[in-house]
Design brief:
By secondary structure, the chain is α+β, with helices and mostly antiparallel strands. Helices cover 24% and strands 30% of the residues. A hairpin with a 6-residue loop joins strand 2 and strand 3. It is globular and about 45 Å long. It comes from Bdellovibrio bacteriovorus (strain ATCC 15356 / DSM 50701 / NCIMB 9529 / HD100).
């Protein structure tokens, strides 16, 4: 089983999506899905003295211009284990350029966390929490001499559009992506 291709994105997608967590909140280790095996690999330990501000992973059966599934940060009370599956309710997104490529980050809340039940828009999040997320992504690759530019945050309508586009692009590219996964080529 490969979680990118075989997990459902959720019965209520895009309003509530499946999030496959690669990196737990608070981690300094960058785990990522090995596209061939479907297992997690350790990509690197972050070079900067920062840690992931939320549980971080991707939405299954999505594909983006950076040649990866659509990234998602899931806010909630609990740090979860890598390869955990969570129901996540998107509330906004952060648009950024990572080394010149568009790299959207969906910002969501854990659908099954009662502390998150009142959050339905990025405007419902504490302003400082958004500053922390932005700051993390602006500096986490700095000591690797890689350039990241955060363009800004968008609310739910733009986020749902980005998620739908990622589903559509996955459907368009599905045959190619499956062949690449089977053959071991990215």
């Amino acid at each position: 089983m490969n979680p990118w291709h075989d997990l459902s994105p959720g019965e209520k997608a895009p309003e509530v999506v499946t999030a496959l967590i690669e990196i737990p909140a608070g981690s300094k280790t960058k785990f990522e899905l090995d596209k061939v095996s479907g297992l997690l690999k350790v990509d690197r330990v972050l070079y900067s003295s920062v840690h992931y501000p939320a549980n971080y992973g991707f939405i299954p059966r999505t594909y983006c211009g950076d040649h990866d599934p659509l990234d998602i940060l899931v806010l909630g009370q609990a740090q979860v284990y890598p390869l955990s599956i969570m129901r996540a309710r998107p509330v906004g997104c952060m648009r950024m350029l990572d080394q010149g490529e568009m790299d959207d980050k969906v910002i969501a809340v854990h659908e099954d966390d009662p502390e998150m039940a009142h959050i339905h828009s990025i405007k419902d999040l504490a302003p400082h929490q958004l500053k922390e997320i932005r700051n993390f992504f602006e500096i986490y690759k700095g000591l690797e001499n890689k350039k990241v530019e955060v363009e800004g945050f968008h609310d739910l309508p733009e986020t749902l559009k980005i998620i739908k586009e990622a589903f559509d692009l996955y459907k368009q590219e599905r045959t190619t992506l499956l062949k690449q996964s089977e053959s071991g080529h990215d």
